[in-house]
Amino acid sequence: xxxxxxxxxxxxxxxxxxxxxxxxxxxxxxxxxxxxxxxxxxxxxxxxxxxxxxxxxxxxxxxxxxxxxxxxxxxxxxxxxxxxxxxxxxxxxxxxxxxxxxxxxxxxxxxxxxxxxxxxxxxxxxxxxxxxxxxxxxxxxxxxxxxxxxxxxxxxxxxxxxxxxxxxxxxxxxxxxxxxxxxxxxxxxxxxxxxxxxxxxxxxxxxxxxxxx
Length: 213
Fold this sequence. Notes:
six-stranded mixed β-sheet, 31% strand, alpha/beta
């Protein structure tokens, strides 16, 4: 369940089953889109069925499965796209990655503003803090919002992000999780880039990758 006052809708999209999120104040129309990974027509249909007004697209990182619908949504709604600068090169390589995985090549979107560590963002009464969490990707960030964190591919239910892709490093990822996520309250809801939601407390106690952290 989202923390009080927030409404979080999620759609799982594409061949990699990536979670795209729509964040808004409870009952509001203005929304921030987080990690629109694929199936742009489906995401647009959801936005229009709910009469939502997108304000921005914010990405945790630029791996292929997280950026596939960004360009179409930017064009449709004329909203800014934000990404950490350390992932700009990764974004440009998305078509090459698509060819390697045998999936459709995405249109590479233009980044409108870089995200920076501990930057404070605000849209429609939603306050968001950016936390740089490299290890899965060099420019990976997590987005902390009022008792919740959008963790991208850093932390999952019972697992952590893979580190065998370019820019990945296991010790760096574990250090990022310890410094930027395990310092959050146990009640913090974790919305990951793949799989079900969880909480910081649950992962602190039961995630085998985090023992001793």
